[in-house]
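Issue: copy button drops trailing tokens. Both records pasted manually instead:
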Amino acid sequence: MKHKAAHGNYMKTLKKLINALILLAGLSILVSCKGETTFSKRINNQSDETITAVVYMVNGNIDSTLIGPKKIKEIYWDEKISSFVDASYSCLEEIDSISVTVTNNMILTKDIMDLNNWDRDSENGRNATESCEFFIGHWQVQDTTK
């Protein structure tokens, strides 16, 4: 008799454990279905000069980045869970302004705050990406002394 009661309690405990595992697996699937969007912005400096970009973000953060000749540097990166964007997303959306200086008395002739000067690449899906790049060619920096 004791054996049957012990077996019955064991089966009840096992059933509760299985139900808990099923519930946990279901919750894991639901949580893992939440998507995210990764946002990145970079400057592709293909000039022969070193560029300094001071980025003033809408949220008040300020970051200075030195970009050597023929180098690409990320000036912004963020990952937002359960955040997706549509076609109206702007490469300058999180940025208030950007100040650019160029070495050797040179100036950048391309407006970094003109949205049309940024290339945007979007990948949709559960883990979406929004990548933006500002390209600087050697012809887009000029000597200020000439």
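Record 2 (pasted manually too):
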Amino acid sequence: MKTNEIINLTDAYFAGKTTSEEERLLFVSLSQNIEGREYFKDSMLLKTALQTVEEPFPEHLDAKILVGIQSQNKATMFDYLNPRFLPLYAVTICVIVFTFVFFNKMESYKSEMEKTMQTVKDQQYTIELLMNGLPTVQVRPTSQQVYKLMNN
């Protein structure tokens, strides 16, 4: 029998899923296969160690756990009014107030900037109208400049 088959049969033996014929076959195979014998010894040691470590589970432990979980889930309004949270609440309120004040100040600066920009645009428009309304300038040479040009 191959080592893998012996290992599978050993696992089934310790799980209690073997017949008496399979057990006889396992022990005959173990006498011939050294690796299978080592695996069987290790499994036997593991089983005995688990039996010594295993403690009975108390029945009242479930009830204690459930009562503990139920008491932790109940949060009342007084839990949120705990004095240790008061500094946190104070800081939160201060941040909200400062944010509101700065937002309003920024809005006022924005409206003032828009008014100033509109005034500048109006003044620029007025200047352009005045410049376009003036008569065109004609530059004529004086009589002295004409005389100099003709003598040259």
